[in-house]
Design brief:
This protein is α/β, with parallel strands linked by helices and 257 residues long. Helix content is 23%, strand content 22%.
Length: 257
């Protein structure tokens, strides 16, 4: 799709040592951050385009960007939808899921931030639903990709979170599987359990994939086996490995005219 650009940043620029934290807000005054952001935008799009970010709060709030001016303030939400060309949508992450969605038929795009709270609140299916109602999107035509996030190999959770996921996905049925996951790094996701009771680990990407497929996305159009940010901490930022002190990566998607 030559009219679409997207990508996921790493902990460091390629072939470079300095950390590439892209933890931006609406009052950027760090020259290195500004330079890194501008270089990234040019790499993705070939020109200077506005990058729209959110004040993310692990909510189910979704912002539809139907018009844009450069002086617009950052909105408080955890998902963005637009049909506007020449604009990049960005999600900041450091273990949580970043989900990029495109409907090639109508040229509608979305960028979603979803940690365990967002998944339980339904930010992913609510975004797909809003794409349907506001932009006439057919989920069967959509393509989705889940970016680097903490994996089931490392994401241990307590009883409260585990029970909330077990309850939610039992109600929804489908791919929920309580069996022990013997292949935590397998590329095959269709029968991978969402929660492993032996290791008390949660599979956020499998849960997200299930929600996307439940909304009508076709299995072969959902890419959902991202590398683990906790395992590969030299490549990615990890909030959990850094014990809350870490940078952020960006997931970006944009329509080109």
């Amino acid at each position: 799709m030559p009219w679409l650009t997207h990508g996921f940043t790493l902990r460091h620029p390629i072939n470079s040592d300095p950390k590439l934290t892209l933890d931006f807000n609406n009052k950027i005054n760090n020259k290195k951050q500004i330079s890194s952001r501008n270089q990234l935008i040019k790499t993705l799009s070939g020109r200077n385009l506005p990058l729209v970010l959110l004040n993310q709060t692990h909510s189910e709030e979704i912002y539809c960007l139907d018009q844009f001016t450069p002086v617009d303030s950052i909105k408080t939400a955890d998902a963005l939808i637009t049909t506007l060309p020449e604009i990049l949508l960005g999600i900041q992450v450091a273990d949580c899921l970043s989900v990029l969605v495109v409907d090639p038929s109508n040229r509608v795009i979305a960028a979603i931030h979803a940690g365990w709270r967002g998944l339980l609140k339904g930010v992913v299916p609510k975004t797909i639903s809003l794409m349907q109602s506001n932009y006439s999107v057919n989920p069967k035509n959509c393509i989705a990709v889940i970016g680097p996030s903490i994996g089931s190999c490392c994401y241990q959770v307590g009883d409260e979170v585990a029970n909330a996921f077990l309850e939610l996905f039992k109600k929804q049925g489908g791919i929920f599987d309580p069996k022990v996951n013997s292949l935590p790094h397998s590329m095959e996701l269709y029968n991978r359990p969402i929660y492993n009771p032996k290791t008390r680990t949660l599979n956020l990407s499998a849960a997200c994939r299930f929600q996307l497929q439940s909304c009508g996305l076709m299995p072969d159009k959902v890419s959902s086996d991202p590398p683990c940010t906790f395992c590969h901490n030299k490549v990615f930022f990890s909030y959990r490995r850094g014990k809350g002190r870490t940078g952020r990566m960006l997931a970006i998607i944009g329509l080109l005219s």
